[in-house]
Amino acid sequence: MATGQLETRFDEEAMQVYFREGEKRARALENRGPIRFGPDGKIHSDIVEAYGRVGFYIFEDVLGAEELAELKAGFLDVMDRLPARRDSPLDARGRPALGSDRDTPLVMWSKPLADPLGGTQLANGRHSVKMDVPEPPKDGPEDTPFIIMGPLEHSEAALCTYAHPGLLAVVEAINGDDFVPYNEAWIVKKPGEGAAFSWHQDGTTHWDAEDWTPFTHGFNFMVQMYDCTPANAIWYVPGTHKVGRLDIRQVVREAGGNRLPDAVPLICKAGDVAISNRQILHGSFPNLSGDMRATFNMGFHRRKSVVGASTHGIDGAWVTYSDARVDKRAEMIGYGIAARRQRHPEEAPYRYRPHIEAGARFDWAPESRDAVRDYQKLDLFI
After folding, report:
1. Measured torsion, CA atoms of residues 279, 281, 287, 290, in degrees rounded to the nearest 10
2. What are the chain's domains?
């Protein structure tokens, strides 16, 4: 296909070739392995270097079988309690659906195999190009969930995993010991119906800042509850977190379509955790495979990137992030550490410097659930 000539139909045979070639490229990146520490007790410098070079890294076997089973059970319980369909107040069993008593949506829905964000102004307009998608299955559901919000409130297992000491040590190594949260969600790509995510970069506020760096807009952890294959995985263009804001329309035009030639899939096993720079060019194709993908995403920022930043909040209102708001959102780290300490008393908990210096104490008790209700209204989008 000539440069600049866009493919406008979904070619499944060509996609299979692309998947095989992409996996070969991914395997050659040398950006995976267990969480390792150096002689100074900090995350090994080789990991930090590889993440900085590529823009993502796969930590292998982070969750043991028991913790993975608990995390997956919590996720499946939430899935069972979702609205039976878009805008329904009831779940499939006729019970009040999870989130039906809230004034902000719990679930983002998509038509099966569609690209609901591509070419829209949603998410601050960062999804400028739409993915090629196939015809939806004639016997499929009318809508399918693809993002579920509020995991730390709705799953105690997710709250415990959020405070995994090895993962929080990675956050400290990348974002400093005064790091702050961003957002958490479950990303769902059901087999045969999972939605596409058009090519995009996540950051929206700091591209032209004088102190911009390849790490300014933070990162996401993606805790894998199922295996990731080229057909259901997120795809990246390595190194693009370092080049600034891209003209994604031009990138796709030059590639002749959405099969970007240098992109690679995130190949993971259940229990692996990937760290993904929010500035890297990434996206995913509709999940035509028979394999489920569901990840627990949890994002983190550098504090200096957030305090004083102004943007549209989760409710669409313009907001400037004060120290007080950032500190309030960071309480979820304290609740997570407290919950994990109860569940894993044999483990040395992570010590979060801002809470230690402030003398803040957190307990995880029945009354704590009221304190974390609707916590995601304080998410820190930049």
Report:
1. -80
2. 12-308 (2.60.120.620)
